[in-house]
Specification:
By secondary structure, the chain is α+β, with helices and mostly antiparallel strands. The chain is built from four helices and 29 strands. A seven-stranded mixed sheet has the order 20-17-16-29-28-25-26, with no helix packed on it. The chain has a five-stranded mixed sheet with strand order 1-7-6-3-4. A five-stranded mixed sheet has the order 9-15-14-11-12, with no helix packed on it. Strand 25 and strand 26 form a beta hairpin. The longest helix has 54 residues. About 2% of the residues have low confidence.
Length: 404
């Protein structure tokens, strides 16, 4: 039996493809059509599909003893549906690792007729098959990261295809770059090598190699300080993750790291709570300070006015305390030239304090004397006034007695 698919009202042609065909029958119906009645080439049967055609069978009868038959079943076409990619997240992303085998699985509910399925990348078919499921197994490369993969399915040439697009998210080998920061002091030199991952990939571990000999440092930062030995040589940092490893090498030449650079004349002086810094025109410093026994540096901020005047004041300091002032100049090749100065704030003036205290005591005593003197004088005046009033009363009484 041959299966045909057509929608209601669609015109189709049934082809028996046999020169000995005699007539067409519609099973379980009274329909009979002979070839001479059809007036079509090769006795093909042309019909407009109705709803009743979906529940019957058309038969082509071929002459012979016994006669032969070829049946045609017409069905309503249905598209495939419910497509999904098994490995995809809710954001339609599939996670993988560079260089590790992975599989994309496209599933769907089959339609009628059975669909053909395709996996497509960059506009090219990389896998085909179906129905119902299509697997694509491959080993992803670095350039496949963030690429879109499309699963497509359709069951007739003129039907709208069912499509699901996913994006590949790979863990790829790290991209490693070693950069350098140099701090040049008068007494020694410090070099900081920083092992950077530049493509946004996570790095599980780091390893440093100096002149082909392994170092114990396993962080991404390597701190080097001159201590009676040369820093010359090659430094290689290797970064490792699930996808593999990568490395970068930097070659140091100690004599080229800290070019000679003289500071301008720096003047520092202090009083009890301030330190004053002055310098010659033409230098722009990064300025920091800390107490002698502290490890915390504080940045000194200054404005354009300070640059013009070539002077700066650090205020609100502790008297009689040692401070370290560090001035740094950034070079053009990634190095920093620094110089440190030690200065002590002055203590408070004890004699001046004593004199001030004495003046205060005298002023208080003088003020108290004035107050007590004033009170005493008022009391005496009141006493004198009361005495005169009493005397006047006695005189008045004496004169009264005389008159009597």
């Amino acid at each position: 039996m041959m299966d045909l698919y057509a929608t209601e009202g669609e015109i189709i042609i049934l082809q028996c493809q046999n020169k000995e065909i005699d007539h067409w029958e519609k099973l379980n119906h009274s329909f009979v059509s002979y070839c001479y009645e059809l007036k079509t080439k090769d006795c093909n049967l042309k019909i407009r599909v109705t709803i009743t055609d979906y529940i019957t069978t058309y038969r082509c009868v071929i002459r012979g003893i016994p006669p032969r038959f070829k049946d045609f079943k017409i069905s309503m076409p249905t598209p495939p549906s419910n497509m999904n990619v098994a490995e995809a997240t809710s954001e339609r992303q599939v996670v993988g690792v560079e260089g590790h085998k992975m599989t994309l699985t496209c599933n769907l509910k089959s339609g009628k007729p059975m669909e053909t399925m395709f996996w497509i990348k960059d506009g090219k078919v990389v896998s085909s098959g179906g129905p119902g499921r299509l697997l694509y197994t491959f080993i992803p490369k670095r350039e496949d990261n963030f690429k879109n993969y499309t699963c497509r399915a359709n069951n007739t040439l003129n039907s709208m295809a069912l499509v699901e697009i996913i994006q590949l998210r790979l863990t790829v080998r790290p991209s490693i770059l070693v950069n350098m920061t140099t701090m040049c002091m008068e007494e020694n030199m410090t070099v900081i090598l920083n092992c950077l991952e530049t493509s946004g990939q996570e790095v599980k571990s780091y390893h440093w190699i100096y002149n082909e000999a392994g170092l114990l440092e396993t962080s991404n930062i390597l701190l080097l300080t001159t201590s009676n030995k040369s820093l010359d040589g090659s430094y290689t940092c290797t970064g490792v993750n699930e996808a593999g490893s990568n490395n970068d090498t930097l070659i140091l030449h100690e004599d080229k790291l800290c070019p000679t650079r003289k500071f301008s004349s720096i003047k520092l002086y202090s009083d009890g709570t301030n330190i004053y810094i002055s310098w010659k025109r033409g230098f722009v410093f990064v300025m920091e300070y800390r107490q002698h026994y502290s490890k915390m540096w504080r940045m000194i901020s200054y404005h354009d006015k300070a640059l013009v005047l070539q002077s700066l004041q650090i205020s609100d300091l502790i008297p009689s305390t040692d401070y370290i002032i560090r001035l740094s100049v950034n070079g053009s090749n990634g190095y920093t030239v620094s110089k440190e100065y030690k200065i002590k704030t002055k203590g408070m003036n004890t004699k001046a304090n004593e004199t001030t205290t004495t003046y205060i005591v005298l002023i208080v005593a003088f003020t108290a004397g004035i107050v007590f003197g004033t009170v005493f004088l008022v009391k005496q005046l009141i006493k004198m006034f009361n005495s005169k009033r009493k005397t006047r009363t006695v005189l008045l009484q004496t004169i009264k007695c005389i008159n009597l």
